[in-house]
Amino acid sequence: LVQSNSMLSSMIRHSRYSVKRRSTTALAYSYCLASKMMDGNISVAAFCTATPAVTALLRDPSLLGEVVPPGDTYDVVDPGASAGQHDDGSAIIAQVQRMGREDTKRAIDRASAALGGWKDGTTALHRSGILSKWSELIKENTQDIAKIMTLESGKPLHESIGEITYGTGFLDYYAAEAIRPNSAGGGSISPSPFVAPDGGPRGKIMAMNEAVGVCALITPWNFPIAMITRKVGPALAAGCTTVLKPSELTPLTALALSTLAKRAGVPDGVFEVVTSDRDMTPEVGDEMCTNPVVKKICFTGSTPVGKLLMKLASDTVKRVSLELGGNAPFVVFEDADIDQAVDAAMASKFRNAGQTCVCADRFIIHKSVESEFVAKFADRVNQLKVGHGMNDGITMGPVISTLPVKQLKEKVDEAIAAGAKCVTGGSPLPEFGPNFFAPTILTNVDPSSSIWCTETFGPAAAIRTFETEEEALSLANDTTSGLASYFCTKDLSRIFRFSSNLENGIVCVNEGIFSNAVAPFGGVKESGLGREGGVWGLHEYLETKYVYLNA
Fold first, then answer.
1. What is the per-residue DSSP string for 59-126?
2. Range with the lowest mean pLDDT among 12-16, 416-420, 469-473?
3. Is 488 a catalytic site residue?
């Protein structure tokens, strides 16, 4: 994960690709999203151009639209491509329109123009039906969307398929929540404290839920569908309209979702997509944060960029939801079921090659069980099959670009120089491509090492031991982040005690995967503000209006 104060380098978490020659003559140009300004005089389009090799993999290439000439575009690259493919340009899988501030303004204006009709001109039941239909269409196109996702993000195909199930869960959940009393148009009536002349209560106190308004959403590359549906689902259920800025590394999944949203009946302007490259991202982000029409910013990404967005949004006092960086502890107590702990560790650490904000980074293992845990953990890690995510049997793909490879190698070398032992891995895997790094385990890691102190965002587990519960808690909480945490124990009293004392928004006990549509997802300290998922995620897109009725 790029940890930088520059929106330019941080917002999308990637480095610039070096491609010596571009094989663009064979590109099949496809029109992914088109809409007009509300006055009808200016046409704005987001183009996606995919290679014939990509479209040939799809059952329904129309997900990528109709053939049109390209405009000002940027490259989308397969992170799992070999060095040779990067050199000859065949690593490029598509080109997408490069949009900037003016495009963003127009998208915001369209969302604003559509707000009244969507918020006040539809019933909750109608919005619910559209969300359900959208989910159904995504599920029907699972294989195509999973292939697109794997090609642009690198994750193994089975993980992409799993993410579609996870991502559509948010649409299904918020389709149901849209019609409940706690959604938009609902609310509550409280007893009046005011006294009428006859001594009875005077008037009614009503709290009414209303849509926030136009929402700007900025999503990362590591979960190309779930990070979108987790935001757009509750926003649309609440009656908000949205402008989405997906990562430029994974825009194809977002554009496919846009195509299916339109097929499901989402009106023009309700779900706008702005695609921008790394160079244009700062001005797009600035426009979203400073445009007074936008009433809410929702961002998933690095902590430095989240802080910058908060500052930019403060001048217009926007509502802000932030899901930021983590550095999750994973504690194994002496009474833990070690096999269960290893299963949880594998699920948490190496999913998506360690590139999730809730990945376990710091493994805090009781000294009495360290040898057993490390031996079993290393055995499982050595069974991982690394390679391109589209290949059969692959269980771990690449990291997203060459920069994380360089950064991870520097962290590993620094830790070893400070006394850590490399149990397995520890080096890049150039034979697969420039973006591959071996799954790695380090023991005896110094807590001052950068691999311990900062979010790793890669397939490396840093381990050190403890002897007392107090020591484990101190190590776990010794960080400015506070997103997820994990621990393994059979002691029920310790489960409640340790959970209460951990400084994290999420605590996972005896398990490595916890994300779902019904639970509140979010962090404390510098890991963010607000929650996504469950009823809490819906409330992020609602304002409460107090109406006193003396009648």
1. S-GGGG-B-----SEEEEE-TT--HHHHHHTTTEEEEEE---HHHHHHHHHHHHHHHHHHHTSS-HHH
2. 12-16
3. no
